[in-house]
Each structure stands twice: as C-alpha cells, then as structure tokens.
Design goal:
- The protein has 206 residues and is α/β, with parallel strands linked by helices.
- The protein has one domain (25-205): 3-Layer(aba) Sandwich (Rossmann fold), CATH 3.40.50.
- The protein contains seven helices and eight strands, in the order ααβαβαββαβαβαββ.
- Strands 1, 2, 3, 4, 5, 6, 7 and 8 form an eight-stranded mixed β-sheet that branches.
- α6 links the parallel β5 and β6 (174-175).
- It is globular, with a radius of gyration of 16 Å.
- The two termini are 26 Å apart.
Amino acid sequence: MDFPPEAFNQWASGYDQETAQENGFPFAGYQNLLNAIIAQANAKPGEKVLDLGCGTGNLGALFLPYDCRVWGSDFAAEMLVIARNKYPNIIFAEHDLRQPLPQGFPQQYDVIVSAYVFHHFPIHEKINIISGLLDRHLKPNGRLLIGDLVFVDPAAREQTASRYVDQWDEEEYWTLSEDLPLLAEAGIVVRVEPVSFCASLLHFSR
C-alpha cells in the first residue's frame, strides 16, 4: 500500500465533501456505487455486515435501515473518529484489512463489503485477502461485494490517466483483462457491474 495511515488521517476532515461532489476521477458515480452494493447485498434484518476500509462509515450506514448489525474497520484513526460520531450504532475498530479481523469482531458475516479500498493493493494481495474472506469469514450463501476503481484493460486505464492528470495517482487499479485470469486461477468467480467510467461493483464467490 503506497499511502500510510497518516495520509488518510489528513484527508479525513474533507473526505465526505470530496466524495459528495462526484466530479470526474476517482469519485464519479460514488453514490450510485454505494447504492449498487446495497441493491446486490439484499440485506435482511439481523444479518451481520462487515465494512472493510470503512472510512467515515458511509457504506456501512446504508445497512442500518435494514436492521442489520454492522461492523466497520479502517486503518486511519481520524476517519474512525468521524465515523463514530456520525454512526454510533456501528461498531468500529482500527485495523489493516491484510491482518486478522479485530479482536471482538465476529468471525463470520452474511455480507462483507468494501468501497474504494482494494485498488491500493497489488493483485496478489487482492487475491489473498479475498480468498481469506470467502473461505473463513463469509457465511454460506453470504455476499462479498467490492466497489472500486476498475478498468477493462490497460488502454482504458491509460486513457483515464491522461484525461485526469492532476487527479491521477499510480495505484494498483483493477484491470480486468489482466486480473480476471489470475482470479480464475485462484478459484475466485467474479461478476462485474460497471457503474461509471472508472468504478464498478465486483461480486466475488467460489
């Protein structure tokens, strides 16, 4: 991961305002992506939901009207300060999602979600994390839904990089032509739902 927690701590106070603007890259279609995750989650009362890399809690909070129990983790302490103030009914913990789940968190969930997080990890780490979630932490018939920055191929990625020079960071963005074969080799099935020119919902299963 290229960005240390300190970078996200500095971003925390302006994060909600920046995502709400949805201007260009990377947050075009931000709210539509969160809504797509909720729609595919098909949440039911009493279900356990885990939001990984929860930031200020916006995604996990969308499950509260469905009477779900929600846990959220993030490695940026300042993001969690804001999240706890906004959503006291969600249980939050400071946590790097490459590590075992936080102490006191349930080990299995009906729904595991994440938004705008996994593009910080190279594909081998993506595969390791997703495999662990599917095999150890997702209940039978559970749903693993990741909304993130996704490109069809390197050409689409480079086109966006050229168009949004000032906003672009060199990250490990999902590139389907390269990543889907590697995911398949690892026994991971992926369904892709595009939401904007740069964001898609990825539904993972075995």
